[in-house]
Amino acid sequence: MQLSMPLMRRAFFAVAILAAMPLLTVRPAAAAQNVAEAFVDDNIHKGLDILRDKKLNAVQRRDQFETLLLGLVDVRRIGLFTLGQYRRTAPPEDVEAFIGAFKNYATAAYQSYFTKYTNQTLKVIGSTQRSPTDFVVQTQLADPGSSQQPAQVDFRVRTDTGKPVLVDVAYQGIWLSLEERDQFVAFLGQNNGNVRTLIAHLSELAVNLGKPSN
């Protein structure tokens, strides 16, 4: 089984939005209602500042986005979730190796796509509190040059580690971590639960995503 690249593009498109996408953003009329909204809104503008910095070359801009993204996303928590039941049965050293491969793959994916979405706008429109430390921040993604309706992009933010972190993203109602878990668990199910096989496949995908397009 090969992991679906169109599905992965859709999933990591959502991840890339927070750190890499907007050259133009719209702040809500009122101040952010809670720390989760402020976290999402503020980091959109950090990404904007990096994109607008004319002193940065392409490599510097990419590296700064990578640093920003990895500082916002709880890669370990997401990676462990996507392993499903195999997190409990795989050797600890394989789990750690998977986390590294997952991080590299996620980084390569967003680096491959972030330049495609620079003309979009992203607006925070509200949030839902699921628990005292669990929020879903709702935003709308729009193309100023298109007559299409804005897309719904939701960011799940947790604050139980002492600071806000992004743990999931949904694009048009499709949650990244659930898509990833379904694909990874299916892949492992067809490969005798061998996490090393998944690691090798993710590493191959990361290399291919990092190649310049023709």
List the helices and strands and how they pair.
Elements (H helix, E strand, L loop, with lengths): L4 H16 L14 H18 L5 H15 L2 H8 L3 H4 L2 H22 L7 E11 L2 E9 L8 E8 L6 E7 L2 E2 H14 L5 H16 L4
Antiparallel strand pairs: 1-2, 2-3, 3-4, 4-5
Helix pairs in contact: 1-2, 1-3, 1-6, 1-7, 2-3, 4-6, 4-7, 6-8
Entry keywords:
214 residues; five-stranded antiparallel β-sheet; 17% strand; Nuclear Transport Factor 2, Chain: A; globular; alpha+beta
Structure description:
- The protein has about 210 residues and is an alpha+beta fold.
- It has one domain (about 5-205): Nuclear Transport Factor 2, Chain: A.
- The chain has helices spanning about 5-20, 35-50, 60-70, 75-80, 85-90, 90-115, 175-190, 195-210; strands spanning about 120-130, 135-140, 150-160, 165-170, 175.
- Strand 2 (about 135-140) and strand 3 (about 150-160) form a beta hairpin.
- Helix 1 crosses helix 6 and helix 2 (about 35-50) runs antiparallel to helix 3.
- The model is unreliable at about 20-35 (pLDDT under 50).
CATH topology: Nuclear Transport Factor 2, Chain: A
SSE string, helix = H, strand = E? Answer: HHHHHHEEEEEHH
Q: Approximately how much beta-strand content do the residues carry?
A: 15-25%
**Total number of β-strand segments?**
5
- Tell me the CATH superfamily: Tgt2/MlaC
Number of helices: 8
What's the pLDDT, averaged over the residues? 81
CATH classification class: Alpha Beta
| Helical residue percent band | 40-55%
Distance between the termini: 27 Å
Q: So, CATH architecture? A: Roll
- Could you give the order of strands across the largest sheet? 1-2-3-4-5
Outline, from the CA principal axes?
globular
Q: How many distinct domains?
A: 1
Structural class: alpha+beta
Query: Radius of gyration from the CA trace?
Result: 17 Å
Largest sheet: 5 strands, antiparallel
